[in-house]
Design goal:
With 235 residues, this protein is an alpha/beta fold. The protein has helices at 15-30, 53-57, 69-78, 95-103, 148-158, 180-200, 205-212, 218-226, 230-234; strands spanning 2-7, 34-39, 81-87, 108-114, 119-123, 131-137, 162-166. Bound molecules: flavin mononucleotide.
């Protein structure tokens, strides 16, 4: 199995990546896998210029040829499973991931057809034919609709991805004795989820519910986060 792991955190040490690695460790237990890892750090992706000339060339080639997007497009084509791993930024996609998505427009042709649900463009390559896993990190548990926009986007763009939005990722950056057991519990859940995905090719509704459930009550989470504030630490 060829897995493409696209981690799109702008940080040198991405906590979302830590979570995704726990998931992939589980997945790789079930079947031999080759993982190609591409991070925002290693690759330069320029913004789409919006001229849509790719739709008329109809060969899947973007007009921008002097950055790393061709490598990413080639890796997408070669993979069996694409893992989209990213932090939630302002309830949406981090800019570096949006830049990649916009550039995949080069797979489309100007020609349109009426699909089952949407009006669709003909494509030189159908990204939705791949299997997709989406792992999103965020820092706001107990926040209704925190991930709603991203979930809708992913469903529309990737069609039926296996997806988990983890709401207490901000804790993973911290190393306090009371936080360690929470990290362990979260990584264990992700590891199990990876095994489940490897065996079934999907994540059950119950697994997603567990992954997305906060590990601690709201007041405890707030107290833990506040204990990291500089003025608290100085006391
Ligand atoms: C610009 C920015 C915006 C953010 N917006 C949100 C948000 O809307 N909701 C949320 O739950 N977390 C938000 N966060 C917190 C991050 O999603 C969280 O800390 C993340 O999981 C960090 O992952 P990383 O280490 O992989 O970058 C934001 C962080 C940044 C830097």
């Amino acid at each position: 199995m060829n897995i493409l792991l696209l981690n799109r955190s702008p940080k040198a040490h991405s906590t979302t990546l830590d979570m995704t690695k726990a998931f992939l460790n589980g997945l790789c237990q079930t079947e031999p896998a080759h993982i190609q890892y591409i991070s925002s750090y290693d690759k330069n992706v320029k913004y789409c210029q919006g001229d849509l000339s790719c739709w008329f060339r109809q060969d899947g080639r973007c007009i921008i040829q002097d950055d790393d997007m061709n490598d990413i497009l080639a890796a997408m084509k070669e993979s069996d499973v694409i893992v989209w791993s990213f932090p939630l930024h302002c309830h949406g996609l981090p800019a570096s991931l949006k830049a990649i998505w916009d550039r995949t427009i080069a797979f489309l042709k100007i020609n349109m057809t009426q699909g089952k649900t949407y009006v669709e463009h003909e494509r030189t390559f159908d990204l939705t034919a791949k299997k997709h896993v989406v792992i999103v990190g965020g820092g706001y548990p107990y926040y209704p609709d925190n991930f709603a926009a991203v979930k809708t986007l992913m469903q529309i763009y990737l069609k039926h991805p296996a997806m988990a939005c983890i709401c207490e990722t901000a804790l993973l950056d911290a190393s306090a004795p009371e936080i360690e057991p929470l990290k362990e519990a979260l990584f264990a859940r992700l590891h199990e989820a990876g095994i489940e995905y490897g065996k079934t090719g999907q994540l059950s509704a119950e697994t997603v519910r567990q992954l997305e459930s906060p590990l601690v009550p709201n007041e405890t989470y707030i107290a833990m986060i506040n204990s990291l504030a500089p003025e608290t630490k100085a006391q």
